């Protein structure tokens, strides 16, 4: 009896050792797989690590296609995709204009309570083209911008003084989380009709933009975090 | 200002070894070190003239320096599962002692400490959240000292 008990105890111990060993092997393999997964992510992202490049490729397609940028003499157009960040600002993810001066990045973030970005974000859709000529009616132009909540001192530093602004909110594809805003603008107030833009930015485009932003979400810059980390 | 080979050697000596040190990762670590040092001392550690392209802050100097110093570094070229060539940096000479000032070492060690636990997405996000990259135009040289002044003002 004693011998049998000893034998069973011995078997139990062996089994336990085996289990511990296989558990630690699984943990080790899991860690190794995690590292390999990270390496693969790194390898895969070499061509697409820049969120701006990805978003701008899409915006260029829109500009060249349905938006027909550069097809009206004397008028410049621009599109900017802004992601909404949790700290209450918009971060530009991509900007396209055929005018190199207007194509530049601008500020690194924008408040979410100013201008047509705020209006599009709040109301889902925004269109306005009643801006006076900034060359001949400069004061009235700034007054009109102030009505949108953009102070004159800010507007003075904005290179592209547009006379048409259109924007809309982009949701995630489950329709539960607002993610971003797309703003289209033009220096000619009659460059686009509101209905024309509504038809260009149909559900299909919005769906694609929602999908695009969802995919780059992990890479959207977080300036607050960078500052906290000492950068 | 330090020699680039000493910056690379210090990173390779100190960075946790669980990840292969690719050119992409190493270049960005040197960039972050230069940026951190600019914020602290208004000067870069390396004399790299940083260029912003599709890969973020990108220069060939790091790979070139490693090639020029085979007694310190080994470059291992492999093909990843996407069929692309990938270069891994290995410190050949474990006894090599990088010549860096205490302040330079502090900046690099700060970068290592802040990034060693980040996954690749988080690491890339941090690089792209730094002011020089967020504010510079792509395909231009970045003056980190000027950017630091602008950022601090």
Automatic annotation (TrEMBL), chain B:
Domain Antitoxin SocA-like Panacea: 26-128
InterPro entries in alphabetical order: SocA_Panacea
Name of the protein in its database record: Antitoxin SocA-like Panacea domain-containing protein
Taxonomic source organism: Methanothrix harundinacea (strain 6Ac)
